[in-house]
Amino acid sequence: MTRPKFSWLGLVAVCVLIGTVLPFLVIIPSSFTSGAYLTFPPQGFSLEWYARILDRPEFVHAFGFSLQLASVTAVLATIIGTLAAIAMSKYSFPGKAAVNGALLSPLVLPALILGIALLMLFSRIGIAGTFIGLLLAHLLITVPFVIRLVLTGLSGFDYNIEKAASILGASPLRVFWTVTIPLIKPAIFSGGIFAFLVSFDNVTISLFLVSNKQTTLPIVIFNYIQDSLDPMIAAVSTIVIVVSLVPIVLIERFYGLSKLFGLSERSETP
Amino acid sequence: MTIFSRRAAIAVLLAPALVLLLGVFILPMFSMFVTSLTSPEGGLGLDSYARFFTDGYYWGVLGKTATIGAITAVATLVLGYPVALFMARSDGWVRGVITFVVIVPHLVSVVIRNFGWLMVLGDNGVINSALMSLGWIQRPLQLLYNEFGTIVGFVDSFIAYMILALAASLYNEDPNLARAGSILGAGRLRRFLTITLPLSLPGILSGLVLVFSLVISSFITPILLGGPRVTVMATLTYQQILITLDWPFGTAISFILLATTLLVVTVVTRAFETKRYKEVFGA
Predict the structure, then answer these.
(1) Which band of pLDDT confidence, cut at 50, 70 and 90, is reported for residue B274?
(2) I need a surface site. Which of A61, A155, A172, B281 has the fewest CB within 10 A?
(3) B38 bridge partner residues
(4) Domains and CATH numbers, chain A
């Protein structure tokens, strides 16, 4: 292995990367300030602003609502997406390429347009501003991710193993649970976690579908910071960052973030 | 598969995803398109589209949107290229760490990242207080609630896409080419300009097109960092839909936005495919 040596390229790259994490470097320390105003660098250290969140029921309620929405979205998206991915990997049928393209297409359209289309449909059928409306919208944008991830996980899958199990007398359901699922568990697991993350952090679609009572945490933050900035909102933001970081670390451990984003992990050494 | 026939199995497995797609995507998209064709008097008509294209103000908004999109795309290229190149030139854990640092901020809500930039760029923000305490400026610079603040927020939001697009094409470069260039006497800069840069052209193009199309349909960042003074197509749509409640006009603007995206993607891809790009890559 080569010893690390100074390079201008590395220096420039590190500066740019510091720029991209700058928002976090500013928000997180400021949330622990003991001063009355939002300043950077913060003054002193206290957890006072975290305690203050508890006095604001709208934040507490939205946090619970977001967690609930993201969890239900993750579970349902994982089930729907995994089933679809298995159908497409295991069988060949007429129009398969078209079905595959159609299932991934919600990710191609701008969230702005999806949000408007769903707002119009949901207000017509009376589920705008409800949990079920938000759930359907979040499923639409998370199922494609699960399908893509599970399809990748299944790409090297040897279906002879399933045949072997059924020859040995296992029922189709048993084959599915004890043979197929365990072999693609990392992909399914990462798909679900990623669905949680996408749902928990979504603003662009949620903004069209929330109501005063049923609203998510990022939307409450969005509305709040248009009027005022204080250390309490930095504390709320820090909590969102931490809740987002947990799934990210889990995906990195079980699957690999670069694989998720289509970068091969292979090293270029010949 | 004794109980289910093959066809039934496929149907059962695909049904939930297809029902979701049909009910929550295809149906609403179609009905949204019909709404954009509704004229104020009821009935179908192109009134909303005509209203947009006959008013100079809206052309101005379209122009400003495209300008902000183009500036952001070029800025992410200039800032992202060194990072992608560094990723491609390093290996092992260094590459892993950089990839992680590139991707992670992008996975946290845009609202949070924009909030961070409010703290950095504000009148009492990190940059202004640093410059004032150094005595370089007397009054705070206006870095926020204008086009500049918006572009900074956009660059931060979308640079990850650019870096990943560039890295994907830089990873494919055969290191033997650089060795051959070096043996033939080409210096560092010459090797970069004649080998690496041309080979990364597909990544550059797809990065530019991707960032441009993401920027022009974003409305959170212009609202938070641009404020009321920065009106782009996406914020105009947002106002028409949620505030003015003029749904035919709002949906018409969003379809004009979508058409602009498709036009730019097609024109840029075509233009470059028919030139040297095609000779080099034999597309």
Answers:
(1) low
(2) A155
(3) B44
(4) 57-156+185-259 (1.10.3720.10)
Kindly state the average pLDDT of the residues B182-194: 85
Domain B55-281 -> CATH class: mainly alpha
Nearest alpha carbon to residue B196 among B80, B81, B73, B72: B81
Mark yes or no for CB contact A103/B6 under 8 Å: no
pLDDT band of residue A14 (cuts 50, 70, 90) is: very high
Dump pLDDT digits (tens) for A191-226. 999 999 999 999 999 999 999 889 999 999 999 999
**Distance in Å, alpha carbon of B21 to nearest chain A alpha carbon:** 7
CB B89 within 8 A of CB B188: no
**Mutation target vs B (from A136, A204, A238, A250; most B CBs, 10 A cutoff):** A204
Tokens of A142: 């998370």
Q: For residue A157, what are its two tokens? A: 């899958």
B2 and chain A: CB distance < 8 Å anywhere?
Answer: yes
Show residues of chain A in contact with B23, CB under 8 Å: 136
Give, as one character, the DSSP assignment of residue B38: B
Segments making up each domain of chain B, as ranges: 1-26, 55-281
B91 at the A interface (CB within 8 A)? yes
Residues B112, A218: Cα–Cα separation, whole Å: 8
Residue A176's pLDDT band (cuts 50, 70, 90) = confident
Q: Is A102 an 8 Å CB contact of chain B? A: yes
With a CB cutoff of 8 Å and minimum separation 6, the contacts of B206 are B165
A80 and B257: CB-CB below 8 Å? no
Over residues B242-260, the mean pLDDT reads 93
- pLDDT over 50 (residue A233): yes
* CA A118 vs CA A128, A142, A198, B209, B254: distances in Å: 8, 15, 18, 27, 14
